[in-house]
Structures are given as C-alpha cells and as structure tokens.
C-alpha cells in the first residue's frame, strides 16, 4: 500500500496526571500530533503575527528556557522557513531535515521530544483534499497539513514505524481518538487491540476504527476521521 506524507512534527507529551489516570488502555506516555495532548514545536506561537496571548507565550518561553530576545529570534527562524516553503502554517514541517534544524537550534533540551511523521493512504487523498478546501473568496491560506498532502510526496524513510493512529482533521489541525477516550470504544465494543504505542498495527483495523469514530453516536470531535501511518524519525 502506498502512503503519502502528511508532514513531520516535533511533539512532546503534555503533563496531565488526571488524563493519564483515566486511560489505562494507553501507554504511560502517548506521543501524538494532536496539539491538545502533546506540545507541538512550533505551534501557532511560532509566527509573530498570530496574536497569541502573553500567557501562552510565557509558557512557551518557560518550556524552552528562552527570554524575549531568544523567542523573537525563534519566530524569525520559523517565518524564514515558512517563506522558503519548508514549514506549513500550524507547525508542520515539510521535510525531516527542516524539523531537525529547528530542533538542534531551539528544542534540543526539551525532554521527551520526538520527531514523528504521519502519512495517508494514497486512496484517501481525494477524500482528504475535498474536505474543508480553503475559501479563496475569503483569502484563506492553506493549512500546512493540507499543503503537504497536496504535494503527493512519498514519506521519507523512517527510523521506526509506530503504527496507525485514528486522527480527525479539522480546520488545519489533528484530533487524536485518544482525546475523546475512544480507545474504550475500540477495545470493548469492536474487540480491537491497541499495541505498544497505543496505536493499531494493522491498517484494516485502523480503518474499521476510523469508520466507527466518524459516526455521530461515538461523541468524537468534528472532522474527517481517517487512519494515518505514524513513524518515528531520528532527531540527529
């Protein structure tokens, strides 16, 4: 089966003891490209013109150990990558080398950070691109994930495949099945099995879970729910 690259992401699990206590079916640390469950580097705060609140930028600076001057240097770095076409809006890198370059300069001391890639089955590309196309009349820019998929590039060789994650795409960002506790639905109602990384090791099972997730009765977040192949890449 052929897969198309959906982007490369630097992710760090968010600390959440309460959330973890309610998820016995998932590993203690769960890496995902869902910004609600993991910090993304960079996220929208990487662009100086997004109007992110001072409270949020203060949190970012604390996590990165940066002062105001270093933070502004990082934003200029991100915007230069953006202008060069190496990163898309929302913090999705278009190649692993650009992600590594950012990491070496700004996030090398961030604990538990990983470089993940996501890839979409080629037969799902038309479905994906038909979902929420940018409104040109409103001068909407194209989200980075959509721009990456539209390139139809093969995913770069990976250090290790982690499995298939059911992700919902909505307005330029991903929601993981885990944010709505759907692992309970998969295991107890569908009889499916999640493997070591909290993901499916079989595409057909992930597709079955995605179809179930898309039903309004599951209580999932809005969006286009599809199985995405997740791989981990070397940070060096």
Break the fold down into its secondary structure elements and pairings:
Elements: E1 3-13, H1 17-21, E2 38-41, H2 54-64, H3 68-84, E3 87-88, E4 92-93, H4 96-107, E5 114-121, H5 125-130, H6 144-150, E6 160-170, E7 173-176, H7 183-189, H8 203-213, E8 224-233
Antiparallel strand pairs: 1-2, 1-5, 3-4, 5-8, 6-7, 6-8
Computed structural class: alpha+beta
Largest sheet: 6 strands, antiparallel
* SSE pattern, N- to C-terminal: EHEHHEEHEHHEEHHE
Alpha plus pi helix count: 8
Radius of gyration: 17 Å
How does the overall form come out from the CA principal axes? globular
How much strand?
15-25%
* Average of pLDDT: 91
| Spatial ordering of strands, largest sheet | 2-1-5-8-6-7
Q: Which residues sit in consecutive blocks of at least 5 with pLDDT less than 50?
A: none
DSSP, total strands: 8
Distance between the termini: 28 Å
Q: What percent of residues adopt helix (DSSP H or I)?
A: 25-40%
Description:
Strand 3 (87-88) and strand 4 form a beta hairpin. The protein starts with a strand and ends with a strand. The longest helix is centred in the first third of the chain and has 17 residues, at 68-84. The protein contains eight helices and eight strands; from the N terminus they run E-H-E-H-H-E-E-H-E-H-H-E-E-H-H-E. The protein has a domain at 3-165. The protein has a six-stranded antiparallel beta sheet. A two-stranded antiparallel sheet has the order 3-4. With 236 residues, the chain is α+β, with helices and mostly antiparallel strands. The chain has helices at residues 17-21, 54-64, 68-84, 96-107, 125-130, 144-150, 183-189, 203-213; strands at residues 3-13, 38-41, 87-88, 92-93, 114-121, 160-170, 173-176, 224-233. 32% of the residues lie in helices and 22% in strands.
């Amino acid at each position: 089966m052929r897969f198309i690259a959906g982007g490369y992401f630097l992710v760090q699990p968010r600390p959440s003891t309460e959330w973890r206590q309610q998820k016995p079916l998932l590993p203690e640390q769960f890496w995902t490209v869902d910004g609600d469950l993991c910090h993304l580097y960079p996220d929208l705060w990487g662009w100086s013109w997004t109007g992110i609140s001072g409270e949020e930028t203060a949190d970012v600076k604390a996590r990165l150990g940066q002062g105001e001057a270093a933070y502004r240097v990082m934003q200029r770095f991100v915007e230069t990558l953006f202008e060069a076409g190496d990163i898309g809006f929302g913090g999705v890198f278009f190649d692993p080398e650009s992600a590594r370059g950012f990491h070496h300069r700004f996030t090398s001391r961030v604990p538990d950070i990983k470089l993940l890639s996501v890839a979409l089955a080629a037969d799902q590309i038309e479905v994906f691109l038909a979902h929420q196309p940018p409104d040109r009349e409103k001068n909407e820019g194209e989200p980075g994930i959509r721009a990456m998929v539209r390139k139809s590039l093969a995913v770069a060789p990976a250090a290790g495949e982690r499995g298939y994650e059911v992700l919902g795409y909505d307005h330029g960002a991903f929601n993981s099945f885990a944010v709505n506790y759907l692992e309970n639905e998969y295991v107890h109602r569908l009889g499916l099995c999640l493997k070591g990384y909290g993901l499916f090791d079989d595409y057909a099972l992930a597709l079955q879970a995605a179809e179930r997730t898309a039903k309004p009765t599951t209580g999932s977040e809005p969006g286009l729910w599809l199985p995405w192949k997740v791989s981990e890449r070397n940070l060096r």
